[in-house]
Amino acid sequence: MWTPPGLYVCVPMLLVLTGTALTLDVRRNVLPNWLNVALLVTGVASQIVFAQWSGAWNAATGFAVGFAILLAMWLMGAAGGGDVKFMGAVGAW
C-alpha cells in the first residue's frame, strides 16, 4: 500500500503543535499568537513542499474555512480569538 511521503513528517509535526496548544490552553486558558503563527507557517510550508504550489491554494482554502467556522462561534461568544486563529492554522495543514 502506497503512503504519501509527507505523512511521516506532517502527522508528527501536527501532533506536536496541537499537543502544545492543548497543554497551553488547559494550563493558561490562552492560545498564544506565536503558536498560531508557527502552526500556520509550517502548514503552508508543508503544503508547498509536498503538493507543490497548488498546495499553497489548498492551505489558503483550509485556513479560510477553519477561520470562518470558528469566527461565527466567536461572534456568538462561544469561542475565543486564539481559538479562531488556531482553527484557521490547523485548516492550513
Summarize this entry quickly.
The protein has helices spanning 7-28, 33-51, 54-75, 81-92.
Written description of the protein model:
This protein has 93 residues and is an all-alpha fold. It has four helices and no strands. It has helices at 7-28, 33-51, 54-75, 81-92. Helix 2 (33-51) runs parallel beside helix 4 (81-92) and helix 3 runs antiparallel to helix 4 (81-92). The longest helix is centred in the N-terminal third of the chain and has 22 residues, at 7-28.
Protein traits:
93 residues, mainly alpha, 4 helices, globular
Number of helix segments? 4
Q: Could you say which structural class the secondary elements and strand pairing correspond to? A: mainly alpha
> How many individual β-strands?
0
State the order of secondary-structure elements, H for helix, E for strand: HHHH
- Unreliable segments (pLDDT under 50, ≥5 consecutive)? none
Which range best describes the helical content: under 10%, 10-25%, 25-40%, 40-55%, 55-70% or over 70%? Answer: over 70%
Radius of gyration: 14 Å
- Percent of sequence in beta strands: under 5%
Any idea what the shape is? Answer: globular
Spatial separation of the terminal alpha carbons = 23 Å
Profile the largest sheet.
Answer: none
The overall pLDDT average reads 90
